[in-house]
Design a protein that fits this description.
This protein is α/β, with parallel strands linked by helices and 679 residues long. Helix content is 40%, strand content 13%. The strands form three sheets. Strands 1, 2, 4, 5, 6 and 7 form a six-stranded antiparallel sheet that branches.
């Protein structure tokens, strides 16, 4: 039996109609990911309210649990439905009067409603609670014993694992152990048959051992002497005739065997020892105790013979360093698959997390992206991801890319240079990416479209994920002068121009006629954008590639100087070259290069780009140096935000504006046409 669907109406962030929440869950591990206040905790709490939890915590409905719409009107009724599927024959028999039949499937609906009777929560009955079965909540109400059978284990955020595992009345450890079948096994203690050896003692159960201990303590010589002294020396002297008072020293336990067993368990603690010595190693940290607490909960879920094996965890990454987070995720996956030694059942895990570490370890199909008070399952029936996309993302969606699940906007780039330079450019033009919560995802030239399809829904009529996603793509069409400057051909008549297997393209490959060439190039741009839709947009380089376009739009000298610094990066770091000397030489070389190029911007910028293609300048290192050069110019007041915006390629500016919430001022295509006309 597992939780297969959750419907939430008028509960906290979730309203009704299009604002109602519906999530389908898979057996195994499901992770809720998304930004703060997106509704992850509300989902966990909705399940808790409807199904209860095993820590016996009393759940009190609060006024703020009732949804308030955009007009400020508060709802009067909360509606939560949990659908449980995959019931075994034994579970069907135990719950037969509550079941619903959907074709060949037998399912169980738990409908929890809270209706306000008064606006004053201090009154005795300000709400009416109902928990019923049936598709529409019109079946028999659930008895308390049945609700306990359906309750899940819950690990709250900011949990105090050490306190939960320490001895105390009603401790969580005692609750877990009380439900382990073997705990109540063993013989009882019979005063007439006092065990004579260790083997006989080992046969006693916990209650028997407790009674055996009580018997021995009671008859201990020191205890007997103290008891006799109290009675004969003091109590007799303090009593009146006929009082007949007698004192007894004993362990304060009593009641039924069940009550006695619970008292015993409440005195136990679960703590950590040094594995090498078996001795306590001092106080362990919150992370280690957190793992111990999870192991304790999974012990109960995996071994108990009946009930709903559901574990609800908020922020399982709490207090855990990254490697332990990954290990924890592997372990939860094993528990969900029933691969834990000694566990008899598979455990369903529903967790909420802010950790890219955990999000990168969980299969994409098992994630539910929470955004703008809506839930977006990333299963194959809901997204535009293909089977190949899922397989690709399992390999390449690492922790540095998984931060896209928590972003206010996403910039997907094809290389290290873009990933390095874009945050600086955005900050210098007043659109700081960090301030706007934007993630830059570097796919390294692989899977630009695969990553963007995470945010595209299969059903175009359904609500779309509102996270703006900008894909930055190189145009990869050289100006006609570039192949010769880069040494790819020797003159216009080189046979290599006719080689159909060459991996580069130039403008002349699209026709000699200017109008036909323009249409062909526009068609190529359109093809690069053909997968756009919903909140995903592709921004294509105005001319060719990042470094060339930066140079072409007005930063040619800065790009050239940055490339020269990149070529000399090791000598500069080792101190064998002086930075000022390299800067002076680079500026002089650029002046000479510009003079030799005349007024031909394509030739000049192609010669600047030559440093990256065959001049051994690292694009990534050059991007770092260019960031420093531009930042210094801004700090010195030599270039303003508006002036820099005018010197940047339009496709970069438009992409930055889009993900940070500004409408693009001008498309790359129209800007390109304007520049050509002005030229």
């Amino acid at each position: 039996m597992h939780l297969s669907r959750l419907t939430v109406r008028n509960f906290r962030q979730f309203g009704e109609g299009h604002a109602e929440l519906q999530i389908r869950f898979q057996p195994g591990v499901t992770a809720l990911v998304g930004r703060n206040d997106s509704g992850k905790s509300a989902v966990i709490d909705a399940v808790r309210y409807a199904l209860l939890t095993r820590d016996q915590e009393f759940i009190r409905v609060q006024p703020e649990d009732f949804h308030i719409d955009s007009a400020g009107k508060q709802a009067s009724e909360i509606y939560i439905v949990c659908k449980l599927a995959g019931l075994t024959d034994a579970e069907k028999g135990a719950l037969i009067e509550y079941l619903s039949y959907e074709g060949d499937d037998v399912v169980l609906y738990v409908t929890w409603t809270a209706r306000k009777l008064s606006e004053a929560p201090g009154t005795r009955r300000w709400i009416d609670l109902s928990v019923r079965s049936g598709v529409d909540g019109v079946g028999p109400p659930f008895e308390t014993a049945v609700r306990e059978l359906l309750s899940g284990a819950y690990l709250r955020p900011l949990r105090d694992a050490e306190r939960e595992l320490s001895p105390s009345r009603g401790s969580r450890l005692s609750q877990v152990l009380f439900n382990v079948p073997e705990i109540s096994a063993g013989e009882s203690f019979d005063v007439a048959k006092i065990p004579k050896d260790a083997a006989a003692v080992r046969k006693l159960g916990l209650v028997g051992l407790s009674n055996y201990l009580r018997y021995n303590i009671k008859h201990h010589a020191g205890v007997q002497k103290a008891q006799d002294a109290i009675n004969t020396q003091y109590l007799d002297s303090l009593s009146l005739r006929g009082d007949d008072l007698q004192g007894k020293i004993d362990i304060t336990e009593g009641g039924t065997e069940s009550a006695l067993l619970r008292q015993i368990l409440e005195r136990l603690e679960l703590s950590l020892l040094d594995a090498a010595t078996g001795n306590p190693r001092g106080r362990y940290g919150l992370g280690s105790n957190n793992l111990l607490f999870m192991a304790c909960e999974l012990l109960l879920l995996g071994t108990e013979p009946e009930g709903l094996p559901l574990l609800l965890v908020e922020e399982p990454e709490a207090h855990l360093h990254p490697q332990r987070q990954l290990r924890l995720m592997e372990f939860l996956g094993q528990a969900a698959a029933g691969d834990i030694e000694g566990a008899d059942r598979k455990v369903q895990v529903l967790l909420s997390t802010h950790s890219p570490n955990l999000a990168s370890k969980i299969p994409i199909a098992n994630l539910v992206l929470m955004h703008d008070r809506l839930a977006f399952p990333l299963s194959s029936d809901k997204t535009l991801l293909s089977a190949g996309d899922y397989s690709f993302l399992e390999r390449f969606l690492d922790v540095t890319k998984a931060n896209l699940f928590f972003a206010h906007g996403v910039l997907i780039v094809e290389g290290d240079a873009e990933a390095i330079i874009l945050p600086t450019l955005a900050k210098l033009i007043g659109r700081d990416l960090t301030e706007h919560g934007i993630s830059v995802v570097n796919v390294g030239g692989r899977g630009l479209r695969r990553f963007s399809r995470i945010f595209q829904r299969k059903d175009p009529s359904a609500p779309s994920i509102g996270v703006p996603v900008a894909c930055l793509a190189d145009f990869d069409v050289m100006p006609d002068c570039a192949p010769e400057i880069l040494g790819l051909v020797e003159g216009d008549d080189d046979p290599k121009w006719q080689d159909s297997k060459r991996r580069w393209k130039a403008v002349r490959d699209f026709g000699d006629d200017a109008e036909h060439s323009h249409r062909s190039l526009a068609g190529l741009r359109d093809r690069l954008k053909e997968n756009d839709g919903q909140s995903v947009r592709t921004f294509v380089a105005d001319h060719w590639t990042l470094e060339y376009d930066l140079a072409r739009c007005g930063l040619a000298q800065q790009v050239y100087v940055a490339a020269c610094l990149a070529k000399n990066d090791d000598p500069l770091n080792e101190g064998t070259k002086n930075r000022e000397d390299v800067l002076a030489a680079a500026k002089a070389e650029f002046a000479s290069l510009k003079s030799a190029s005349g007024d031909d911007e394509e030739v000049l910028c192609s010669r600047v780009y030559r440093l990256f293609r065959i001049g051994s300048a690292s694009k990534a290192v050059a991007a770092q140096h260019l960031s420093e050069l531009l930042s210094k110019l801004s700090e010195q007041g030599d270039i303003s935000a508006a002036a820099l915006r005018g010197k940047l390629p339009n496709y970069l500016v438009n992409a930055i504006d889009y993900v940070t919430g500004l409408p693009p001022q001008q498309s790359s295509e129209s800007a390109l046409i304007d520049r050509e006309n002005n030229a």
